[in-house]
Amino acid sequence: MHVTEDALRRFVVSLRKGAAGTESSPTVRDFAERAHKLDPRSLVREGTALLKKEEDAAIARVVLRALRGLRGDIEEHGDHSEFADEASFVRRAVSTWEKRVDDDGEDVLLADNLESSLVAVVPSSSITPAEEKAWKVLVKSRRLATALMALVKKPVTPWFAELAAAYIGREVTHIAKSSRAESWQSKLDDVPVLLGLLPELGNPPIFTPRVLRAANLVLLCHKHAPTREALAAMGTLGLPPRTRRASRASSDGPR
C-alpha cells in the first residue's frame, strides 16, 4: 500500500503531537498486503469479517482504497476490464464503504516500505533547526550505530526517538535483504548494537516492533549468531508467519 509524501509529512507532525496512534495488528497488516490481489466479492467479504473481529478503522480504509482501485480499472477499461461483470457490485460497495470511513486519510502505518519513505521526507517536514541538525548527523554518518550512540547521550524527545527507530528499522531491513548483509551505513555486526540502542531511545512503541521483525529477518536470512543472542536477550526471538513469507519472497527475487 502506497501513501503520498504529504501523508508522510502529516505523520511526522502527528508524531510530534503524540497523536500518531498505534500500529495495526499483524492480521490487519497482512490483509493490507493482500487486498489488491482479491476479487471484489472476496475483498468485501474478508474486509467485513476482519472489521468485526479487529474493530480497526484501518481495515475500512484498506477495503475502500482497494475498491476504488477496482472501480478505476473498470472505468478505464470498460468491457475489457477483468472486473467488468462486477461493475455494479463495485460501485455499490464503494458507496457503502465510504460511509464506514470517518476520515478518508492515508494509513501511513500500513504503507509499503514505510521506514524508507519516512526517512526520505523528514528533511522536508516540520522539524526544528536543532532536530534538523541531529538528523543530518544521522544521514551523513558512515556508521549509523556510532551516530546514534552519540545521539542518545543527550535527552531525546519521544517523537524524535520514533524517527530514529524508523531509521534503525530501515537499516536493519536493508541488511536483511542484502546479499552482502550490509548497507552503506551499517554492517551485519551492527545489528545487535542497533537493537541495544532501542532501550536507550525508550523503546519507541510504533517502530520498535518493526525493528524487531527486521532483526528476525536478518537472523533468518543470514544466520547471524550475535543477532540471535540479542533478540533472545530481549525476549523477541522468532518470526511471525507473514515475515517468513516476506523473507522467502525477497530471497526468490533478484538480489
What order do the helices and strands come in, and which of them pair?
Blueprint: H1 5-17, H2 26-34, H3 40-54, H4 57-77, H5 87-98, H6 114-121, H7 129-140, H8 144-151, H9 158-177, H10 190-200, H11 208-222, H12 225-234, H13 241-252
Helix pairs in contact: 1-9, 3-4, 4-5, 6-9, 7-8, 8-10, 9-10, 9-11, 10-12, 11-12, 11-13
Average pLDDT works out at 87
Q: Give the SSE string.
A: HHHHHHHHHHHHH
Helix amount, in percent? 55-70%
How is the main sheet built?
none
Overall structural class, as computed from helix and strand content, comes to mainly alpha
Oligomer: single chain
Tell me the total number of β-strands. 0
Q: What general form does the structure show?
A: elongated
Computed over alpha carbons, the radius of gyration is: 20 Å
Query: Helical element count?
Result: 13
Low-confidence stretches: 241-255
C-alpha end-to-end distance: 22 Å
Strand content: under 5%
Describe this structure in words.
- The chain contains 13 helices and no strands.
- By secondary structure, it is an all-alpha fold.
- It has helices at residues 5-17, 26-34, 40-54, 57-77, 87-98, 114-121, 129-140, 144-151, 158-177, 190-200, 208-222, 225-234, 241-252.
- The two termini are 22 Å apart.
- The radius of gyration is 20 Å and the shape is elongated.
- The longest helix is centred in the N-terminal third of the chain and has 21 residues, at 57-77.
